[in-house]
Each structure stands twice: as structure tokens, then as C-alpha cells.
Design goal:
Oligomer: heterodimer
Shape of chain A: globular
Shape of chain B: elongated
Strand order of the largest sheet of chain B: 7-11-6-1-4-5-12
Strand order of the largest sheet of chain A: 9-8-7-10-6-1-4-5-11
Number of helices of chain B: 8
Largest sheet of chain A: 9 strands, mixed
Structural class of chain B: alpha/beta
Distance between the termini of chain A: 55 Å
Largest sheet of chain B: 7 strands, parallel
Strand content of chain B: 25-35%
Number of strands of chain B: 18
Largest interface: A-B, 87 and 98 residues
Order of helices and strands of chain B: EEEHEHEHEHEEEEEEEEHEHEHEEH
Structural class of chain A: alpha/beta
Bound molecules: flavin-adenine dinucleotide, adenosine monophosphate
Radius of gyration of chain A: 22 Å
Distance between the termini of chain B: 47 Å
Strand content of chain A: 25-35%
Number of strands of chain A: 13
Order of helices and strands of chain A: EEEHEHEHEHEEEEHEHHEEH
Chain lengths: 259, 325
């Protein structure tokens, strides 16, 4: 199987997010960057499929030079190859822009792919857009938020999470899949993997080479970025259990009016 | 013209679709636009009055054999055709599992960017402006879209319903032939989770448990509370999920679901930043924790320092009393 897995470099989810003085972006200086958490499930699934069916796994990121670090991690986990589409623009929050770059890369460099694996959503942009957009641009089927995946020849079955249920979805390959937590347990890099990854060359393609200047213009205009409104702390009470229960119900009915 | 995609599950209109419809109508009145609602599937004419009263001026039924089962590829294709024909300038979806799956596919088909998971929509200088959480709610982004139509998904439980728009409107029916010839995915089976009628993202009240619940069977205490409270669902912290006490679909937080219910009841949850990321949009928060220093108290409207196992039985009795009165 010819599998591509797409990974994004994002701030560590533990980060304290601060807004820049111009109010148009977040301050990136001093943040620790990692591979977006759901993307790790996508990498793991790609590796498992290759181990079961043979083939090749290529990890791809669209982002700055620093994204080479997360691509090295993918290689250390076991990806065969990696590729950086170098894009120096700061976060645009525009899924279509990224999807155009990915679709164009796949069309020109990997036209005979079987599966494109994504995380269900990137931390930061929190969009959940790129996988379905790439699928449409390439005119292939999609299954998003997948917790279980089976592939048999040119046919796939995926279970995707919906409200209070799972949908069993059948689809023909090639296809786009996005990973939800629960799909698998991502492996750790091995020392041997890390050493081998260091020696591998990672080709870099400037995004301008594969996407027209017009399509690189974000379709999202950032008006402002703000910290969340601080929530006022309420009351804390310490009462015997029975009275506490009565006070909760009284509060909910009389003050908060939610029951 | 506004177009709102109406989601049908088990023959019923999703409440979050009605919320999106009402919000579209409010903004449309500012812009002087009519609002159309699009429904896929047959035999749904009975839904028209409900949609009129919740904000639609017009309801479009897309009918055809190929539309019985949801398929993002097929639905996006036919929606795009409709949008071009009626020249919709804005398209809203509820940010449900289906809306999140379909909207980006449609947007790409139309060649436009998408505003996902919006929590506020306004009209500024004759154009729509959207607010949405980014970095798991640690910041908020206000944005405008540069291309038309403006496509957005609206987070459930955030936008108020309205049902006073009258019972009258226009109905149009489109027979859709099987014109989508590209490979498509197909839902062949829906596996319901037992006892989970309502997803945490849709519930008006979330009753959540953390490591303080101590064991899987103690989550039955929360399920019993849910049976007493209408439109409620059980939530959990990651610690509870990772301990195997309850399924991941119940997890609230940065790597779980983001909820904004009218009421969030937290039992034995400390209030780690990753948990708060998923629930700080709740309208009212009540927390029960035996540690007076628990960070959850910093954001709770009512904090109760107590042993949850002692409080819950009384709470159950008290709720039974007032809710069955
Ligand atoms: C990348 C990343 C992503 C994460 N994503 C999430 C996420 O999506 N959701 C999430 O929840 N967490 C997430 N976490 C984990 C988070 O950091 C916390 O570890 C977790 O939320 C703690 O869960 P808890 O509050 O149930 O447990 P604890 O922090 O252990 O708190 C248990 C609480 O129960 C109280 N308690 C104990 N017994 C009783 C009793 N009898 N009566 C009353 N109170 C009692 C204690 O006082 C304590 O405050 C994430 C962490 C990371 C690093
Ligand atoms: N810049 C990027 N480079 C590579 N993959 C990306 C990039 N942005 C998004 N993705 C992929 O698309 C998924 C969904 O991202 P998003 O639509 O931004 O929430 C991510 O989990 C990644 O798998």
C-alpha cells in the first residue's frame, strides 16, 4: 500500500497561549512545538497498515523549516520517507489553503496513492477541515473521526464516531481517513529509529512551487485574536451532605434557573 | 439568500439544526435576505411547518433514492448544485458529526474557505463576521471570509432557538437523479451506544465524573442522576476514561469533546486546564470536590466542598422531589 500521512507542527497543548500586542495572532516565541496530537494516531495507523500489508509510508508536513523536527519523529517511529512542503507564512486558520497545497502535492508527486491519513483536527486552528477538503479536491471518498479501520484489497471499512453512536462506513480506495483518539495506541520512537531517522534526507519543496500565488492568499481575514473572557469565580460552600444537596438544587432552580 | 442544512437523524430534525436556522434568520433580517432550509430524504414534508416556525422562509426537499443513506461525497455534490442554482450567499450547518464532515467537503467543492465551530455570528458593514474558539478555547478568533458563499458551522447549544416565525412559507421539491458517479463512501450500519440517547455535545445538562468517582460502577450514580434530569448526558475527565471506567466518547476536554451545556455538574474532577478547555463555555458550573483547593472551584458558579459519595444520594432524593412535583 502506498500511504501518505499528514502531520502538522503545533504548540504543545500544555502551552499558555498569549495574544500578540497587535491582537492578530498568538505569541509563538517561547512555546514548545509538537506534532498535533491526533496526527500521531494517523502515523501509527499508517505504520500498522504497512506492517500488515506491505508498502510504503510517507510523512508530509506543510509548514516552516522547524517542522522537520516532527517529520524526524515520524521517521523515528518508522515512516519510510518524509517530505516538507515549506511554507513560512504564520498560521492563517484557513483549511482550504493547506488543503490546496496538499492536494496539489499528491496530484503531482503521489498520483498512485492508496490512503491519505490525517488527524481529525489540528490543535490551534481547531478546524477539522483539511481532510475533507483534500478528499473533495482529489475527488476521493472520505471517512472522518475514525476509531477503527480495516482494509481488504481495494475496499475499506471504517467506524466513525458520531453523537451517541458509531457509523460503520464502507468505501473504495483510494480514500481519505482522519483519525480519532481510540484508533490505536501510538508507539514510542526507538533509539535505533531515532539514529536511522537522523541519517535520512528529508526533501523540501517550497509551497510556491506547487500552489499558485492566488491560492496562497488566505480566504480567511483575521479581524482579531483575543483571550477568553475571564469567568468570575462563584461561591464555595461547605455544608453537611444533606444540606449541601438541598443548596445545590435551590441554587439551580432559584439563582441559575437551569432546572 | 441564506441556506441552512437541516440534519435528520432517525426521522427527526436535529435541535442544533434549528439553532443554526434561527441564527441564520436573525442575521438574515439584518441583511434583508430570505432564508432557505435544505433537507435530504423522502417523506419529510411534515417537517416543513417546524422549519418555517424556526426561521425558514422556504424549505427545499432533495429527494432521491441515492440520498437515503448519508454520504458526504453525494450530499456535498447535490448541495453545491442547489447553492449555485439559488445563488446562496451564506450557508450554515450545525457543527455536529455530520455537519463537520459535510461542510468542509462542500466548501472545497465551492472553492471557498470555511468558518468552523462558530460561537458567535454578527453582521458588520453588511457582511458576516464570525467568532470561534482556537487553541482549544484558550483564545478566540474573529474572522471574515473573503469568498462567497460564506460557509460556516455553528456550535450546538450556543445559539438560542426561536420558534415564533409563523407557520407559512414556500415548499419546493427537487428530484435528484443518481448523478454522482465518482467513488463514494456509504454508511452501512449505525451502532448505537447502549443507554446513550444523547451525546455530551448535545446535552443541555452534563453530569460529569472524574478520578474521584473511584470505579466504573460508580458512574451508575451519574447515570441515575441523568435519568432524572431531562436532556442530560454523562461526561468524564480523561483520568476516568483512561482508567477504563467509561468510553472515550464521554470525555470532555482538549482531547475529548467541547461542551457548552446550560449546566455542567462536575463530581470528583480537579479542573486541570485540559479539562477546562472542554467545558468552560458551560453556562452554569457546579462542582463537588472534597479538596477545598481544587482548581475547578475557580470557575464554578457554585462549589461544594464535600465527599461526592455522600452528596449524590441526597441530591438524587432532592431532585426526585422537585422534578416530579
Ligand atoms: C495533551 C493532554 C491532553 C489532555 N486532555 C484532557 C481532556 O481532554 N480531558 C481531561 O479531562 N483531561 C485531559 N488531560 C488530563 C488532565 O491534565 C488531568 O490529568 C485530568 O483532567 C485529571 O482528571 P481528574 O480531574 O478526574 O483527576 P484528578 O486530577 O486526579 O482529580 C480528581 C479529583 O477528585 C477529587 N476527589 C477524590 N475523591 C473524591 C470524593 N470522594 N468526593 C469528592 N471529590 C473527590 C480530588 O480532590 C481531585 O480534585 C490531558 C492532558 C494532556 C497532557
Ligand atoms: N500544515 C499542515 N501540514 C500537514 N498536515 C496538516 C496541516 N494542517 C492540517 N493538516 C492535517 O489535517 C488535519 C486536520 O487539520 P485541521 O483541518 O487544521 O483541523 C491535521 O490533523 C493534519 O493531519
Amino acid at each position: 500500500m502506498n500511504i501518505l500521512v499528514f502531520v502538522k507542527r503545533v504548540p504543545d497543548t500544555e502551552s499558555r497561549i498569549r495574544v500578540s500586542p497587535d491582537g492578530l495572532r498568538i505569541v509563538e516565541e517561547g512555546l514548545n512545538f509538537i506534532i498535533s496530537p491526533y496526527d500521531e494516531y494517523a502515523v501509527e495507523e499508517a505504520l500498522r497498515l504497512r506492517e500488515a500489508k506491505g508498502g510504503k509510508v510517507t510523512a508530509v508536513s506543510v509548514g516552516p523549516e522547524e517542522a522537520l523536527l516532527i517529520l524526524r519523529k515520524c521517521l523515528a517511529m518508522g515512516a519510510d520517507e518524509a517530505l516538507l512542503v515549506k511554507d513560512t507564512s504564520p498560521e492563517t486558520f484557513d483549511g482550504l489553503r493547506t488543503a490546496e497545497a496538499i492536494a496539489s502535492l499528491v496530484r503531482t508527486k503521489f498520483p498512485d496513492f492508496d490512503l491519505l491519513l490525517f488527524g481529525k483536527q489540528s490543535f490551534g486552528a481547531d478546524n477539522g477541515q483539511v481532510p475533507a477538503m483534500v478528499a473533495e479536491l482529489l475527488q476521493v471518498p472520505q471517512v472522518n473521526v475514525v476509531v477503527k479501520l480495516q482494509v481488504e484489497g481495494k475496499q475499506g471499512v471504517a467506524f466513525r464516531e458520531v453523537e451517541g453512536a458509531q457509523e460503520k462506513v464502507t468505501f473504495p480506495l483510494p480514500a481519505v481517513i482522519s483519525a480519532q483518539k481510540g484508533l490505536n495506541e501510538p508507539r514510542y520512537e526507538t533509539l535505533k529509529g531515532i539514529m536511522a531517522a537522523k541519517r535520512k534526507e528529508i526533501p523540501v519543496i517550497p509551497v510556491e512551487e506547487i500552489v499558485s500565488a492566488a491560492k496562497l492568499q488566505p480566504g480567511v481575514e483575521v479581524v482579531k485574536v483575543e483571550p477568553p473572557a475571564a469567568k468570575q469565580a462563584g461561591r464555595v460552600i461547605q455544608l453537611p451532605p444533606e444540606e449541601a444537596a438541598r443548596e445545590i438544587v435551590r441554587f439551580l432552580r432559584e439563582e441559575a434557573k437551569v432546572l | 439568500m441564506f441556506l441552512v442544512f437541516i440534519e435528520i437523524r432517525e426521522g427527526k430534525v436535529k435541535k442544533s439544526s434549528l439553532e443554526a436556522l434561527a441564527e441564520a434568520r436573525r442575521r438574515a433580517e439584518e441583511l434583508g435576505w430570505p432564508v432557505a432550509a435544505a433537507i435530504f430524504g423522502s417523506g419529510l414534508e411534515v417537517q416543513a411547518p417546524l422549519l418555517f416556525s424556526h426561521g425558514a422562509n422556504k424549505v427545499v426537499f432533495l429527494e432521491g433514492e441515492s440520498l437515503a443513506d448519508y454520504s458526504p461525497e453525494v450530499y456535498a455534490f447535490h448541495l453545491a448544485e442547489l447553492i449555485k442554482e439559488i445563488q446562496a450567499e451564506a450557508v450554515f450547518f450545525a457543527a455536529t458529526a455530520m455537519g463537520r464532515d459535510l461542510a468542509p467537503r462542500l466548501a472545497a467543492r465551492l472553492g471557498v474557505s470555511l468558518a468552523s465551530d462558530c460561537t458567535k455570528v454578527s453582521v458588520v458593514n453588511g457582511d458576516l463576521e464570525f467568532v470561534r474558539p482556537i487553541y482549544a478555547g484558550k483564545a478566540f478568533l474573529t474572522l471574515r471570509l473573503k469568498n462567497k458563499p460564506r460557509v460556516a458551522t455553528l456550535r450546538p447549544n450556543v445559539f438560542p432557538l426561536a420558534s415564533d416565525f409563523g407557520q407559512e412559507g414556500e415548499v419546493s421539491r427537487r428530484q435528484v437523479q443518481a448523478t454522482y458517479s465518482r467513488p463514494a463512501s456509504r454508511v452501512t450500519e449505525v451502532l448505537r451506544e447502549e443507554g446513550a440517547e444523547l451525546d455530551v455535545t448535545e446535552a443541555e445538562v452534563v453530569v460529569s465524573g472524574g478520578r474521584g468517582m473511584k470505579a466504573a460502577e460508580n458512574f451508575n450514580l451519574l447515570r441515575e442522576l441523568c435519568r432524572l434530569i431531562p436532556r442530560s448526558a454523562v461526561g468524564a475527565s480523561r483520568s476516568a476514561v483512561d482508567s477504563g471506567w467509561i468510553g472515550h466518547q464521554h470525555q470532555v476536554g482538549q482531547t475529548g469533546k467541547t461542551v457548552c451545556p446550560n449546566l455542567y455538574l462536575a463530581f470528583g474532577i480537579s479542573g486541570a486546564i485540559q479539562h477546562l478547555a472542554g467545558m468552560s463555555g458551560s453556562k452554569v458550573v457546579v462542582a463537588v470536590n472534597k479538596d477545598p483547593e481544587a482548581p475547578i472551584f475557580k470557575i464554578a458558579d457554585l462549589g461544594v466542598v464535600a465527599d461526592l459519595f455522600q452528596v449524590i444520594p441526597h441530591l438524587q432524593a432532592e431532585l426526585k422531589k422537585v422534578l416530579t412535583e
